[in-house]
Give the backbone structure.
Amino acid sequence: MTAPHYLPEGLPIPVPENDGLSRPYWEGTRRGELWIQKCKDCGTWQWGPEWICHSCRSFEIEWLQVEGKGRIFSWERVWHPVHPALKEHGPYIVVLVELPAAGNVRMIGNLLGDPRQEVPIGAAVEAVFESHDDTDPPYTLVQWRRVDDS
């Protein structure tokens, strides 16, 4: 039996762009891994995926696997449905997660758990890989879960 997904069915399926830029990220999520870009020339980490370094403008960008652990930098409790599939699904929490293992770049994702939970800035979170194997094509989302960091 497949575990329920955090968000309801009917949302668009995320796929890599036709140019293949984000393919390493999506292939990594299918394996339960988090992959982020890093510039080979200046060492700057970056997210979202780009062909050029945000810092030094080099085209020497590589993808590296990083630990899926971070801290909540910011968050929002979403009440307004931004897609018809979300009409009866709310609220839910979206977090901006800072990743220390990737130069503190920030990624957006959903925070799992009670949608009315308290969300302290700086709270520790870990990546949860939510597989959608029954779609065409199959994909895996990165969600976030609070962890005890004591």
